[in-house]
């Protein structure tokens, strides 16, 4: 599998740990890719002895050309499934079609609520708190052309307390993400019988 990440990579770390411990069997992380040069995810991957690739959008004519390059790198590394973990790019058809039904993402809300264009990172938690709902959570879903619109595979709920802020909610949700993502990847791989 490959993991694509743009940020701190705490989900990446949870997945690396789950593979190392044998919780996710029959797989290896062959490559970690980032579109951000200084993503801490790349440091985490290197520290774990995993090959990394930094790909710069401005080196390519458009998003499709960028994703074609990513697909080539994934093919070269014989990647079977693609895990998005805080990857701040919208995937285009070359990548979506090459790995149809084999791309997973984690989103920090209970989809379909608080998903879609512009809903990422702190913006999600700010919108959740502002709406006054009493529960949030995280969702792992298949990735298709609709932003955050692919089939939801699993979710964990998190209660929202009156004193919660977007920051405190983000921390609570992120903690659950680290449990949910390895579990779903484990089941996904077992169902695919890779
Ligand atoms: C997580 O909140 C995830 O739900 C979202 O991006 C964030 C990534 O965090 N897609 P990290 O880089 O794994 O720490």
Explain what the structure shows:
The structure is a single chain. By secondary structure, this protein is an alpha/beta fold. The protein is 39% helix and 18% strand. The protein is built from 6 helices and 7 strands. The protein has helices spanning 10-20, 40-47, 63-76, 93-98, 122-131, 166-192, and strands spanning 2-4, 31-34, 52-54, 82-84, 103-107, 135-142, 152-159. It has a 7-stranded mixed β-sheet, covered by helices on one side. Helix 4 (93-98) links the parallel strand 4 and strand 5. Helix 5 crosses helix 6 (166-192). The N and C termini lie close together (10 Å). The structure holds 5-O-phosphono-beta-D-ribofuranosylamine. 5-O-phosphono-beta-D-ribofuranosylamine is lined by residues 5, 7-12, 85-86, 106-108, 138, 174, 177.
